[in-house]
Amino acid sequence: MKFDQPTPVLPITRSLCDSNYWTALGHSQRPFGQKKFYKLVTFHGVFSPKINFVSSSYWKSIEFRHIVSGNGMNFYLLGTGDNMLPARSSRTSSSSRSGSLHRSSQRSQPTRSSRSSTVKKTSRVRKRSTAQTDCDIRPTAVVAPKKKTTTTSSRRRSRSAAISTVEVRPSGTIFSRRSNAKREAIHHLPEHPPVDLTPPAWMQEECQVGPAQAGDQTEILQLLSGLPSPPSRAEFHASVDHPEHDSANRLVARLAGRIVGHIEIAPRTIMIGGAPVKAAALDRVAILPECRGAGHGQRLVQAAEQRMRELGVVAAFSRTRIASSFHDLGWSVLGRDCASPGRPADILSRLLATPERQGPEVTMRQWRHVELPAILRIYEQNAARFVGTTARTEAYARWLVSRKAFDSIIVALQGNDRYDLHETTAKIVGYCIQTGGRVLEVMADPEYRGLEREILARVCAEAIENDRQELIYESSPTDPLHEEVRGPTCDDQSAAITSRIAPQDRMIVARIFDPRGLLTAMAPTLASRVVQAGIRDTVELGFDSDTFRGSVTIPAAKDDEPREATVQPGRVGRSYLKLADDEFTRLVLGQCDPLEATTAGRLEPSTQLSQKLAEQLFPRLPLWCPMWDDVPA
């Protein structure tokens, strides 16, 4: 149909049906008899009562293209060229056409109004009767506009192509000019200017490492505030009272007059397989965040190593979360420092479900300061079977107590609970040290096996009374109480495999500065292991590594003479082990299985005897560095 020609008028005849709007379903073009009908529209209509359906009302064919429909009886709208009205533009035809229809009939088509999506119902709208249920409105269908020919004007073509939905309502005809095509979403990405992440030149300069001064306390505290467990000002004052305090053991890195790094050396005696060894611990390692990646941390660790060599330290330990950085500097990763979280109520229920301990009953209470020697006795009875424990003297233990790095110490007594300095009537057989929601140590006399469970149950009961929702149990990874704290990982508890790795865990790294001195300190322990193995012949085991090349020799047994082990540097012998420095450190410190290392290719024994001697002289031992020695005050 051409819009620049006169538009035919189509008659509509319809019986009265009560509703307030009507729509059309579709339209087509067909021949009817000998005449060409422009439009043949099938309506299922619901019409407004304002329109007189007994007589015919006239509508332009352009309106029929946009009529949508409801339900009802079928009828046809036919348009021919017999009845014509002058054509008008699409913008002005609505008002003029409505006016002409109103002049011919007072109940003609309602005028077009704004694009309101709702129709207000007034009191003049009739209510439906029960007999007119067949006139219910159906969902509105969208009718696409008729495709125009090439002769259509550009203005009409643009407006017609933009119309997608039309609704004829009593308030007027609503044209929706939204396109049917789904447009792609426009994502407005923020535009950020490129940022140069290269540190300033002054941060890349080599820092100056030296001992901290008296006036650096405030700046050091500000630097260490970013650590997971930052020290307090009281920690600095407590470190001055350490039995082996030396101000030169606190090193700082300065850059352009500013402190950008810190490291602390804590000398202590470490137990390795029951043998006390002069060692040290690296703690409070921190680098300013904006200065990381420039090598300041490596210079700090190297300066600390040089300081420990000057002090005659045999081995050094550190508890860290950046084990890979220490490994790059030649340190060996020994294992994981285990910490298990759990809810006190769940822990207590699992502990009470286990069989009770067979033995004399014990009572528990808070400790007294005069009972410190008894606590040290129990600690020494258990520390010998671990690697990494601190040899605590009475002076060192009193310094730990004076730091006040604990909330309570519970002791377990067997006998009458009286004030007894020499433990004649009541013997202390266990203790527990805790701070906040952390259980730092739980120890018991080896003769009272299973007493640790009762002590932990007492701690959980007190935590429930104090409304604590979580406890963190810190001990060796081989401690079976970790399973009681964490619980099984699956429903089948008999086949449960519990992992003892937690986000709170940190790695323990170590480095040996004097291999000969370490083997010499361990000589009595090595000789006793040979005697326990029942070997009466001469034993010689050599080591071939980059840092140490030598052997350990134990003479044959003669009558009742004690056997002593000697270290011979430079002599490897016939039975020796070829291994790297990293594996040598783990082997001597009891954290390497010789058979497993040989299978993995990390250890090369020269003979089968050398591998058997390695398993007997250096068995695998549990690793534990007590947290009470390093917890902030």
Number of strands: 26
What fraction of the residues are assigned to beta strands by DSSP?
25-35%
**Low-confidence regions:** 1-144, 150-161, 490-501
Number of domains: 4
Q: Mean of residue pLDDT?
A: 76
**Number of helical segments with 4 or more residues:** 18
Helical fraction equals 25-40%
Fill in the keyword field for this structure.
alpha+beta; Aminopeptidase; disordered N terminus; 633 residues; 4 domains; 26% strand; 18 helices; globular; 5-stranded mixed sheet; 13-stranded mixed sheet
General description of the model:
The protein has 633 residues and is of the alpha+beta class. The protein has 4 domains: 170 residues, no CATH class; 109 residues, Aminopeptidase (3-Layer(aba) Sandwich), CATH 3.40.630.30; 126 residues, Aminopeptidase (3-Layer(aba) Sandwich), CATH 3.40.630; 104 residues, Nonspecific Lipid-transfer Protein, Chain A, CATH 3.30.1050. Helices cover 25% and strands 26% of the residues. It has 18 helices and 26 strands. The strands form 5 sheets. Strands 9, 10, 11, 12, 13, 14, 15, 16, 17, 18, 19, 20 and 21 form a 13-stranded mixed β-sheet that branches. A hairpin with a 2-residue loop joins strand 7 and strand 8. Helix 9 runs antiparallel to helix 12. The longest helix has 15 residues. The chain is globular and about 120 Å long. The termini are far apart.
